[in-house]
């Protein structure tokens, strides 16, 4: 079970990122618990300045723009 | 080249060669189309049952010329900017600025504001990220003002629609306003007017992202993604802006324009700022209006003041910043930037 946090105020790209995480997890057969973090304070506390940001199991792996699908699988598979 | 097995209905990723060939092909097509703008707009106008030199004929011709022109320019500029910006990130910018507390911080922040990609939905985390890393508030403001005001999209459109002279003037003064306003705001010691929780958050952890290995094709993809996203979002404002520009071009008599926006009317500069601030649009929407205003004889200073206040001081942007700034700080911010814009407007009306 992996915990994935998606940092973003809820814009279109944040929703697209969430879908990409779900698709990548389904493809790998990894179980994920997705948590969306939308308030500015928590986003900044995580060190994210460009949204959407992604953290896997507490480790920030990406910030700014949509993630690359292949890399997303790496992060979730690791 | 990629040699993945076929995955049925799943989309095959395009190969690198397809990307290079596709972008080159589109660039050539765009270039050729750009050369045909005048015949195209004349042909469109001729399809309407109106006299070519009537008010309506002029308005239609302006619209039919500007819509494809602005959309072509916008697509090209957004793509190139998207590719260039893939080398910059707010995280990198922050680490560059964090070490600079002295006077160079202001112009440097303004310069980086032009190149660092951020959308308005990121402006709050970005603001907090800067301030909590110890970057002075004034330097942060220089960054936030310069980003939208002297962005490459606005400059490119200005160059394409009204020429390089005005684009250069705009660049120099936009950059100066961002630097000087940030400096003035910094000297005022406004940290106490931040929202309480922002002030308390002094040492947020720096998100140390691993440097992602990205190829040149990845950068091209970033550019294409930006085009899809930005052009997909602003095209409606482009149409509205060009519509307004066409109406001004076709119907507003020059004598009336000279009276309300000419160099003689001293009140026209502040009026342009007052009208500009609540207008919600962006560079792509307002520049066709500017093109029509200048064509009708509006004074350069008044027109620049209008454009700068629309682009740099939009109310929705201020409402987003309300999360981190108190109303008082927002009011001071608007006042300082407005003074800079007014000074620019009067200076040009006086000089020209």
Structural description of this entry:
Chain A: The active site is at residues 11, 14. Chain A: Disulfide bonds join 11-14. Chain A: Pfam families: Thioredoxin_3. Chain A: Keywords: Disulfide bond, Redox-active center. The complex is a heterodimer of chains A (78) and B (352). Helix content of chain A is 41%, strand content 27%. With 78 residues, chain A is of the alpha+beta class. Chain A has one domain (2-77): Glutaredoxin (3-Layer(aba) Sandwich), CATH 3.40.30.10. A four-stranded mixed β-sheet of chain A has the order 2-1-3-4, covered by helices on one side. In chain A, helix 1 packs across helix 3. By secondary structure, chain B is an all-alpha fold. The radius of gyration of chain B is 22 Å and the shape is flat. Residues 1-10 of chain B have low confidence and may be disordered. The chains are: A alpha+beta (78), B mainly alpha (352). The A-B interface holds A 7-9, 11, 13, 40-41, 43-51, 53, 60-66, 68, 71 and B 89-91, 94, 117-119, 121-122, 124-126, 128-130, 132, 197, 201, 204-210, 212, 218, 222, 225, 229, 323-324.
The string of secondary-structure elements of chain B, in order, is: HHHHHHHHHHHHHHHHH
Mean pLDDT of chain B: 86
Number of domains of chain A: 1
Structure summary, number of beta strands of chain B: 0
> What's the shape of chain B?
flat
Radius of gyration over C-alpha positions of chain A, nearest whole angstrom: 11 Å
The largest inter-chain interface, given as chain pair and residues per side, is: A-B, 26 and 32 residues
Largest sheet of chain B: none
Query: How many domain modules of chain B?
Result: 1
Low-pLDDT segments, ≥5 res of chain A: none
First and last CA, distance of chain A: 12 Å
Report the radius of gyration of chain B as a whole number of Å.
22 Å
Q: Give the class of chain B from helix and strand content and strand pairing.
A: mainly alpha
CATH architecture field of chain A: 3-Layer(aba) Sandwich
Total count of helical runs of at least 4 residues of chain B? 17
Shape of chain A: globular
Low-confidence stretches of chain B: 1-10
